[in-house]
Amino acid sequence: MRRMGWLLAVVAAVGARGGDTGVRLPEGYRDWKLISVAHEAGELNDFRAVLGNEVAVKAYREGTLPFPDGTVIVRLAWNYEASEENNKIFGRAQSFVAGAPVNVQVEEKDQKKYAATGGWGFGQFKDGKAADEAVLKTCFPCHEKLKGRDLVFTRYAK
Predict the structure, then answer these.
(1) Which stretch of DSSP H or E encloses residue 9?
(2) CB atoms inside a 10 Å sphere around CB 113
(3) What number of CA atoms fall less than 13 Å from residue 85's CA on the CB side?
(4) What pTM value is reported for the model?
(5) CB distance 103 to 128 below 8 Å
(6) What DSSP character marks residue 147?
(7) Cis omega (within 30 of 0) for bond into 66
(8) Number of neighbouring beta carbons within 10 Å of residue 38
(9) CATH top class, domain 2-149
């Protein structure tokens, strides 16, 4: 729980911008609805919680594609760690928990403002600081491959 509090403090820098993209950490995003969770394996090896504003949640629930302008999706990531404390109780290695925070990513839909990147603006924040432009330039090339899903990785399970 202490780590969660630390993450809240780190990303509470509301108004921090994602490089020169204009994407900001949205105020109050930690209170948004959960869309999905994921475990990313490989080099990243993290847990992710994906949250959405009301526009995003409504679009997900109704299956609306493309997402409407005003959609904002926030992904929080933590290191994926074994819980030795829990495993002692279970008697075997089976419990994994969120470790140290990795980063917060923001995807914001505005077809006019972000026309060059498929209508989506991308932001990434680590330790409360916006990623530099070089990091942000890696977002669109991956998301662009998801044209049939309006450039969004996360699916919504009803």
Answers:
(1) helix 2-11
(2) 16
(3) 2
(4) 0.84
(5) no
(6) G
(7) yes
(8) 15
(9) alpha beta
Of 9, 31, 7, 17, nearest to 124 by C-alpha is 17
Amino acid of residue 152: V
Residue 87 CB coordination number (10 Å): 14
Those residues with Cβ within 8 angstroms of residue 11's Cβ, 6 or more apart along the chain or in another chain: 25, 30, 76, 101, 104, 125, 128
DSSP annotation of 68: P
Backbone angles phi, psi at 116, to 5 degrees: -70, -20
Strand order from edge to edge, sheet including 129-130: 33-40, 46-52, 72-82, 96-109, 120-126, 129-130
Going residue by residue through the chain (158 aa), what tens digit of pLDDT does each one get?
Answer: 444 443 433 333 334 555 556 799 999 999 999 999 999 999 989 999 999 999 999 999 999 999 999 999 999 999 999 999 999 999 999 999 999 999 999 999 999 999 999 999 999 999 878 999 999 999 999 999 999 999 999 999 77
Query: Residues, the chain, total?
Result: 158
What pairing do the DSSP bridges indicate for beta strands 96-109 and 72-82? antiparallel
The structural domains of the chain, with segments of one domain joined by +, span: 2-149
Beta bridge partners of residue 13, listed in sequence order: none
